[in-house]
Amino acid sequence: VLNNLLASLSESHIALDTSEPGANEAMLALLVETHSLLGWSYFHMQDFASSISQFEKILSLSQNQDIQTNALLKIADAYYNLGEYEQAKAYYLQLIQDYPNAQETPDAQYSLILTYLQLEDTEHYVNESQNFLNTYQEHPHKPLILYHLGEYYIEHQEYTQALDLLTQLVE
Q1: What pLDDT, in 10s, does the model give residues 42-60?
Q2: Which of 48, 13, 15 has its CA nearest to residue 31?
Q3: Number of alpha carbons in the 13 Å side-chain half-sphere of residue 37
Q4: 27 in helix, strand or coil?
């Protein structure tokens, strides 16, 4: 049903009367929101390829930073869920580099840490974890990062670093 609605909206968008002020902007906003609903629906149905397609359409339609960052994060998350970690990494990095102050940036950095872990890229995993801990002192994911990075240091017999991190969890 949503796909049929989107098709008719796209046709209407092409045939809009440009003499009516704001009509194109309103239709564009409706198209973006429809792609977003489709993307979220596909994502929750675990049809990640279709979700990516919808969010990529949003990137081409909207220049709004909030919409762009949300779409980039959902595309990256979908690639992560597909096990396409290099693609996920590229989108997380794009969001972080292009929009360092966006609301989604901390979540992208957290997900990038998990992506480096999946890629077994320990150097970047440790560096990004430390960067996250230094940058986002009050973020809700901080305890998880402290725990997992502490666990990493124990596995690598770097006990002093592990103690420094893990004691922050219990103090």
Answers
A1: 999 999 999 999 999 999 9
A2: 13
A3: 11
A4: helix
More confident residue, 1 or 170: 170
Q: Are 53 and 79 contacting, i.e. CB atoms less than 8 angstroms apart? A: no
Task: Give the torsion sign (CA, 118, 121, 122, 123).
Answer: negative
If one counts every other C-beta atom within 10 angstroms of the C-beta of residue 92, the result is: 31
Burial 34-50 (b: 16+ CB within 10 A, else e): bbbebbeebbeeeebeb
Tokens of 163: 């103690």
The candidate with the shortest Cα–Cα distance to 61, out of 28, 26, 13, 85, is 28
Structure tokens at 62: 């909207």
Separation CA 159–CA 86 (nearest Å): 31
Q: Which residue has the tokens 């909030």?
A: 66
- 75-128 confidence digits (pLDDT tens): 999 999 999 999 999 999 999 999 999 999 999 999 999 999 999 999 999 999
Q: With b meaning 16 or more CB within 10 Å and e meaning fewer, what string describes 116-145?
A: bbeeeeeebbbebbeebbeebeebebbeeb
Please report where in the chains the tokens 């990494």 appear, as a residue: 89
